[in-house]
Amino acid sequence: MEIIRTIELLRKRVADAKAANKTIGLVPTMGALHDGHLSLIDRARKECDIVVVSDFVNPTQFNNPDDLKTYPRTEAADCSKMEAAGVDYAFIPSVEEIYPEPDTRVFDLGPVAEVMEGAMRPGHFNGVAQIVSKLFAIVTPDKAYFGEKDFQQIAVIRRMAELEGFDIDIVDCPIKREADGLALSSRNVRLSPEARAIAPEINRALRASLDFARDHSVAETRDFVVGTINSKGMETEYYEIVDARTMQPVADWADTPCAVGCVTVYCGGVRLIDNIKYQ
């Protein structure tokens, strides 16, 4: 595995690979790699000749300075995991390399970016669009891999790719979980032992809601999930049941062929997200 820190060198490596008719898979990450990231790398390894993983904590997608400051950074451990997973190129640039000057682009992301995370974290998805569009332009991958834990983010990235004219296959991959059901996240390392003990109740509430939803309305199911999670000593920021394609809230199960419940919860002060598909 080669560690690359400049855009110029990465472009050269990609150009050489494409000249040899090799396919390129990109896995964008913010580091602090866990088994969820490794599952994306594994899939890219199986489907592409060359795997590029970006390891970059993107400042423009943080609307909370404290969140940016405390986001885990584990470059040495990340590199060990990437090399063991068969990554060809680890792209680990500085902030100055990616943003030599402020990125003032504003993307017309539309309704998919206006609800849930978009409403709670103003500017977050525009920052995501900024960094992912830069990575797409630098790497020009054939496929790019994203985890379904960030379900809304995938819809936003598809919208950005459409706006920018990127001909890239955006591959969404299933959520990876701990044995007790907690969705893997780089933020999990910030959970205290007490918070870690109750965090799996998020997924348990979501799974319990699958049975509950069979004979209850969307609104009743939403209240059931929020009430269940909050009763365990956590605080639900939002729980929305949305159309899987548009990200818009649904009022009735018949309103969509595929409803997804998306939740954000504060557990011991750590902000966790998860989701579940109802159809």
Outline the fold blueprint.
Layout: E1 2-4, H1 7-19, E2 24-29, H2 35-47, E3 50-55, H3 65-70, H4 75-84, E4 89-91, H5 95-98, H6 117-120, H7 124-139, E5 143-147, H8 151-164, E6 169-173, H9 193-198, H10 201-213, H11 218-230, E7 235-243, E8 259-267, E9 270-277
Parallel strand pairs: 1-4, 2-3, 2-5, 3-4, 5-6
Antiparallel strand pairs: 7-8, 8-9
Explain what the structure shows.
This protein is an alpha/beta fold and 279 residues long. It has two domains: 2-173, Rossmann fold; 186-277, Pantoate-beta-alanine ligase, C-terminal domain (Pantoate--beta-alanine Ligase, Chain: A,domain 2), CATH 3.30.1300. The chain has eleven helices and nine strands. The strands form two sheets. The chain has a six-stranded parallel β-sheet with strand order 1-4-3-2-5-6, with helices on both faces. The protein has a three-stranded antiparallel β-sheet with strand order 7-8-9. Helix 8 (151-164) links the parallel strand 5 and strand 6 (169-173). The mean pLDDT is 97.
